[in-house]
Amino acid sequence: QKEVEQNSGPLSVPEGAIASLNCTYSDRGSQSFFWYRQYSGKSPELIMFIYSNGDKEDGRFTAQLNKASQYVSLLIRDSQPSDSATYLCASRGISSASKIIFGSGTRLSIRP
Amino acid sequence: DAGVTQSPTHLIKTRGQQVTLRCSPISGHKSVSWYQQVLGQGPQFIFQYYEKEERGRGNFPDRFSARQFPNYSSELNVNALLLGDSALYLCASSLAGGATYEQYFGPGTRLTVT
Predict the structure, then answer these.
(1) Chain B residues with beta carbon closer than 8 angstroms to that of A43
(2) How far is CA B103 from CA A9, A17, A82, B13, in A?
(3) pLDDT tier at A95 (50, 70, 90 boundaries)?
(4) CB of A6 within 8 A of CB of A106?
(5) Can you give A87-109 as a three-state secondary structure string?
């Protein structure tokens, strides 16, 4: 079982709609969670960071964390073609605080 | 402010050779981590350094080594290169080494082993 799992996609969403990206993790000791956006051929760019249960909003992005269900999600409102990228979910545990574990990413495509 | 910088951008090496990759963190950041990313996969953790000490090591062979300098820059060394070492090598910096600190990635070094 992978420690951080994501649906590889592609997830196709019409422009202007809400894109919903999901991630599950297996280590209950995971403390903090990250969403990175990665364009083809580029390095990952930090989008959101969350470590408390509930929602965290930043502009068009909302990260949601449910530690009981070991589930993290990223919502992108008013999706734009420029949001088309691979979105990487990552977790970090207090017991091995130095190590961030990444999922394989979900490819998102926003269709005009 | 400048972000994380890495050099070189691209590198082509032959099997059996050795390579050194360099990273300069964001100003004020004291922790540097190294990751390997192969096509279609998420980054895999190799090392973290904080205040010039190794704080974590991923599941990579001893051919991989790293160090952090007093100015917090870092080098990743890979000896006896294999074809499977071909990947994007990413450096990430954070203020400190704890779990609640965000990591910011550099542009990466694309290593091709032939």
Answers:
(1) 88, 90, 105-108
(2) 25, 29, 23, 29
(3) low
(4) yes
(5) EEEEEEECCCCCCEEECCCEEEE
Which pLDDT belongs to residue A99? Answer: 78
Supply the pLDDT for residue A97. 57
Phi, psi of A81 (to 5 degrees): -55, -30
Which candidate, A111, A82, A93, A90, places its Cα nearest to that of A21?
A: A90
What pLDDT is recorded for position A29?
A: 84
pLDDT at A65: 97
pLDDT digits (tens, 9 = 90+) for A16-50: 999 999 999 998 888 899 999 999 999 999 999 99
Do A102 and B108 lie within an 8 Å CB cutoff?
Answer: no
Q: How many helices (H) and strands (E) does chain B have?
A: 0, 11
Segments of chain B with pLDDT less than 70:
1, 99
Residue among B5, B18, B23, B40 nearest B85 (CA): B18
CA distance A94 to chain B (A): 6
Structure tokens at B71: 């100015």
Q: How far is A14 from chain B (nearest CA, A)?
A: 24
Give pLDDT, residue A50. Answer: 94
Helix (H, G, I), strand (E, B) or coil at B107: coil
Residue type, B45: F
Q: How far apart are CA A31 and CA A91, in angstroms?
A: 7
